[in-house]
Design a protein that fits this description.
Keywords: Coenzyme M biosynthesis, Decarboxylase, Lyase, Thiamine pyrophosphate
Oligomer: single chain
Order of helices and strands: HEHEHEHEHEHEHEHEHEHHEEEHEHEH
Enzyme class: lyase
Helix content: 40-55%
Distance between the termini: 54 Å
Function: Involved in the biosynthesis of the coenzyme M (2-mercaptoethanesulfonic acid). Catalyzes the decarboxylation of sulfopyruvate to sulfoacetaldehyde.
Structural class: alpha/beta
Shape: elongated
Strand order of the largest sheet: 2-1-3-4-6-5
EC number: 4.1.1.79
Number of strands: 14
Strand content: 15-25%
Number of helices: 14
Pathway: Cofactor biosynthesis; coenzyme M biosynthesis; sulfoacetaldehyde from phosphoenolpyruvate and sulfite: step 4/4
Length: about 375
Amino acid sequence: MKVEDFVDVLSCDFYTGVPDSQLKALCNYLMNTYGIDKNHHIIAANEGNCTALAAGYHLSTGKIPVVYMQNSGEGNIINPVASLLNDKVYAIPCIFVIGWRGEPGIHDEPQHIYQGQITCDLLDLMDIENFVIDKETSVDELKNQMKKYSSILDEGKNVAFVIGKNALTYDEKVEYKNDNEMIREEIIRHIVDVSGEDPIVSTTGKASRELFEIREANGQSHKYDFLTVGSMGHSSSIALGVAINKPDERIWCIDGDGAVLMHMGSMGVVANVNPDNFIHIVINNGAHETVGGMPTVASNMNLVEIAKACGYSYAVTIDNFDDLDSELNKVKDLNKLCFIEVKCSIGARDDLGRPTTTAIENKENFMKYLSK
């Protein structure tokens, strides 16, 4: 189904969400049509954030908002759906458009398998009527479903369209880029060179994939790294848990701007605990690159000042490899809670692979290494 037909049938003029590769057609359509426009389209920090934003839109306009997201974000919407939107509370109607990663019968990555199995079950538990759109769904079927949904929305309830792989198409292209020169894979390569045998916790997406391939190319063991293949926004908290319990080890966290934004409160917790063996590196390309490249708001934020305000002992931003090497070697010996923001370009090589070890193997090897 062409995304233009999908949007036309929904007949809504406000969209907010968190980008997803399964919804790339919708995301690119919204960027081409609206860009980032406070009246029509806002990319939120996390899925709960956009659900609350959608509630505010309805309260002020009386219209129906659309929230889009990957199914991994269902956990983030449970609280606002159950305690804010629900018809037993404020009865605020909303249309959810959910990319179905881990759809049963379709090969996907390990972090998506269980989430895919329970995607529709979670919606049922939240009393959100849901309808699956696949490659065979016709516009007429969608129109008939929207007619059914109209009465449900009128009752102040929520509905959802679960979007299968390649179910929506869009012919126009969108190029996402910035003016930064540093390439993320090279940034990670420099971190690996300096960190030596120190444990690294890396964020979900291409950063962990690149870290894995760098170890392969170097002929190094993967035991040093915990690859957070899911749980976007939680890598720094995982790393904090490790740092607290391994005070004699220097713990590095390789994070991304989208991930930091998703659960930024964790920075305050990290700083309050103030582990002197923790180095937090945020590779900031101002984009949700792993799922298509749509922008985050991080390119317009001063993450270093935020880190300092949270209580990080040392914080700096850099945009070139000479300064990167200098700062990496400096923080390695500081014995303070450190924060490095690295300005990064958008893009990765086309032949970037995925980890060839399982998530369980990664966990067990990492734990064995920490135990020694």
